[in-house]
Amino acid sequence: xxxxxxxxxxxxxxxxIEEMAKLLRDGKTVIFPTETVYGLGANALDEEAAKKIxxxxxxxxxxxxxxxxxxxxxxxxxxxSVNEKAEKLINEFWPGPLTVILPKKDIIPDVTSGGLETxxxxxxxxxxxNALIKAAGIPIAAPSANISGRPSPTRAEHVKKEMxxxxxxxxxxxxxxFGLESTVVDLxxxxxxxxxxxxxxxxxxxEIVGNVDMDSSxxxxxxxxxxxxxxxxxxxxxxxxxxxxxxxxxxxxxRKINELYEEKSDENQKIGVICMSDIARKIKTDEIIDxxxxxxxxxxxxxxxxxxxxxxxxxxxxxxxxxxxxxxxxIMNRLMKSAGYKVIEAE
Length: 347
Ligand code: TXA
Ligand code: MG
Hints:
cytoplasm; binds magnesium ion; five-stranded parallel beta sheet; alpha/beta; globular; single chain
């Protein structure tokens, strides 16, 4: 039985918050909105509670969880120490879509840290998330609220559809404004290292703490893309449709997609396209989703567009490739995974 309630972020109903917070205190799971994606939360300090998260998602239990807090100072009870760079980044970007990794204290159980000696901590800016964590009075472990392998949910309807019956509570709280998961930065070494790009970019962090590195595997996979590499099916952010990224100049992308659409041999195959507004009008296809005219909008709409393509019954989705500047880094990281790194060059 899942308790499902709507909350307006601008007029928060504290009775519902308390009801959901009680579920969390009782060791149960609650899905709640954040500014990035919906999270599937449980008491981060309670092993049995944290285990329920993995069960609900069907997630491998060696993948560590992010611990969410409601106030900056709570981090001191979770990690061994907060070094100077961590302090600066937290002061600049919290509350917000930045997750920091630091050596953990013993109160963090292995289930939450995936057996690691470090823990990931983040303070969300979404007001519902903040009110819920505060009311619960405990740190909340929360991965994205999707079944493992599927696109992360950024709309209330996504979680209601996919997770009803799998968790104790769902707070339906509108759309997630950033739409991509938080930037994860490892602060255990001399130089901060980005493990997952997000809306807080490398450049934004470098302004605060100087040099920031990016996990080389994130970049390498990008560099090593093989056109249509068969069998490279990564189960990450995957819709039911087969996703291909079309890369090139805008005009070439339009031409290539229209060509691919003309060439499709099987009339029963439904083709979908996701792209920015400037080329959306010029594309011939069965289903099209306009992601918007800025990278911020593309980020906010990306996962929803993949989920919508499933609902429209698309068999193949062609996605425009984006630049990897700024937030484009995070967009392409997610898009590449959802496409299993399949890229078609448009000349
Ligand atoms: O925006 C977000 O971060 C969302 C919302 C709900 O807050 N949460 C989220 O959680 O994306 P999840 O579990 O889907 O992703 C957590 C990421 C994973 O890639 C995990 O491997 C990494 O953070 N991570 C967590 N703890 C870590 C640690 N101690 N060391 C290295 N990576 C860690
Ligand atoms: Mg996830």
